[in-house]
Amino acid sequence: MADRVALVTGGTRGIGAAIVRQLAADGFRVAFSGQTKETVDRALETLRSEGVEAHGRAADARLEEDQKALVDFVDQELGRLDVLVNNAGIGAFDRVDRLSPETFRETVETNLFGPYYAIHYAAPLMKRGGGGFIVNIGSLAGINAFAGGAAYNASKFGLLGLSDASMLDLRHEGIRIAIVMPGSVATDFSHSHGNRNFSWMLSPEDVGRAVADLVRYPDRAIPSRLELRPSKPPKK
After folding, report:
1. Is there a contact between 104 and 155 (Cβ–Cβ < 8 Å)?
2. pLDDT at residue 108 above 80?
3. Residues 6+ away with beta carbon under 8 Å from 222
4. pLDDT tens-digit readout, 179-192
5. Is there a contact between 83 and 126 (Cβ–Cβ < 8 Å)?
């Protein structure tokens, strides 16, 4: 893995940071993005204190020009791209009649347009290197709608469609694409939405392990969808 390069969007905390650490531990040269320079610098400092080498750049997932610049940064700094993990995402929850158009737009642009931009600009760089693997971090909310989830469900249902269609578009050119759909994960995101008991939830490291396992699959196979669930959720 020493010559292989991975890029993780939204890699400054939570699931993204766990993926960065796991891929680095597996021998990848890793780059990641965060929404602001401040969050990227803090994450780099933390990683260095742990002995993890990484490259970071601020990039807003909603902005096409930022995602293009991020891929160009990886090309210039590391010379190739073998693995792209589209992890950057946000959640906003409210009834559809109360949800503001601005919030709906921001959620869909971050969770769906962002991965599209990254795939669009990463694919030529991967092809130049002979292929690659793209992992999109989705959610079980991409197949299970819930009240208050109009924006989040729409973005994650859309991401599933984008992932599957892109896989069919690019597999004959050596680029494999998978989507990981976790259930409840114990992160700051979960805490901010009222969850108090984290013991039964998946950990960010569980998702990181899943990504690392996927990108090691033999070239002849595409494990294109992975549903990742807590083994002992509260009984209903």
Report:
1. no
2. yes
3. 167, 171, 176, 177, 178
4. 999 988 887 654 44
5. no
Active site residue 152: yes
Beta strands, E only, the chain: 5-8, 29-34, 54-58, 83-86, 132-137, 175-182, 225-228
| Alpha-carbon gap, residue 181 to 156, rounded angstroms | 9
Set 116, 117, 121, 152: catalytic member: 152
Domains of the chain: 5-228 (3.40.50.720)
d(CA 111, CA 91): 9
Question: Who contacts 12 (Cβ-Cβ below 8 Å, separation ≥6)?
Answer: 32, 34, 35, 39, 40, 42, 43, 56
8 A C-beta contact, residue 140 and residue 229: yes
* pLDDT tens, residue by residue, 119-132: 999 999 999 999 99
Distance CA 183, CA 119 (A): 24
Tokens of residue 132, six digits: 């690659």
pLDDT in tens, 211-229: 999 999 999 999 999 999 9
| Mean pLDDT of the region 104-112 | 98
Report the DSSP beta bridge partners of residue 178.
Answer: 135
CA-CA distance, 84 to 82, in Å (whole number)? 7
Strand pairing partners for 30? 6, 54
Token couple for 168? 């069919």
Is pTM beyond 0.90? Reply is yes
